[in-house]
Amino acid sequence: MDNVTEEVHNPFGIEVPGGGAYGYGDANADFHIIGDSPACHGGAATGVPFTETAAGRAVQSVLYELGFAAEPYSDEPELTNAYLSYLHPGFTDGEPSESSYADQERFLDAELRAINAHVLLPVGDRPFRYALAEHTTLARKLAPDAAAHHASPVRGRGFLVVPVADPDAWTVGDRAALVETLRELLAGDYRQTKGVATTVG
């Protein structure tokens, strides 16, 4: 079922006390990119995930190369089949606290249910740890080290999870590996990775 909305910025009306970098992009996307927080991956001024930082530029450049984004970088990217969210969308003075992460995870859960994508791309260790625990059965088998599993698909409960090392720590070949993996998924029938129902923690 498609979402009936033309809104690209916070299409589901989520409100975080103090404001935040809310979900952004195609509300009918098959690919859902999950970052950490505005403090980590940018958006404190724009309110858009994966902007204003080198990490954001790296992620957007990959989306552009694969045809998800209309240009290599924008503070308001035009996205097709891709949606950007944060595990902790709220603005903070410095890195969010553990209790704040725990509280704001519910906003991502709501967006995951609403978007109902086929492929999750958690960027960095904390989003990967969340994806492993909440959307796969492998949390006890795989260390939540996004770099160790970078661009290697993990079959989840209702999603295919493709971990992405934090772009600030990408080494030679990491970008190319991610592009190659996503290009292969796009060339195949990645929708078959979807289960009968999406499980949200």
Describe the structure in your own words:
The C terminus is likely disordered. This protein has a single domain, classed as Uracil-DNA Glycosylase, subunit E. It has 201 residues and is of the alpha/beta class.
Core attributes:
5 helices, 6 strands, 201 residues, disordered C terminus, 6-stranded mixed beta sheet, alpha/beta, Uracil-DNA Glycosylase, subunit E
Short summary:
With 201 residues, this protein is of the alpha/beta class.
| CATH homologous superfamily descriptor | Uracil-DNA glycosylase-like domain
Distance between the termini: 21 Å
Give the overall silhouette: globular
Number of strands: 6
Tally of domains: 1
Give the class from helix and strand content and strand pairing. Answer: alpha/beta
Secondary structure tally, helices = 5
CATH class: Alpha Beta
- CATH architecture, by name, is 3-Layer(aba) Sandwich
Any idea of the CATH topology? Uracil-DNA Glycosylase, subunit E
Q: Report the mean per-residue pLDDT as an integer.
A: 91
The fraction of residues assigned to DSSP E strands is 5-15%
- Largest sheet, order of strands side by side? 1-3-2-4-6-5
Overall helicity: 25-40%
- SSE string, helix = H, strand = E? EEHHEHEHEEH
Rg calc? 15 Å
Low-confidence stretches: 192-201
Largest sheet: 6 strands, mixed
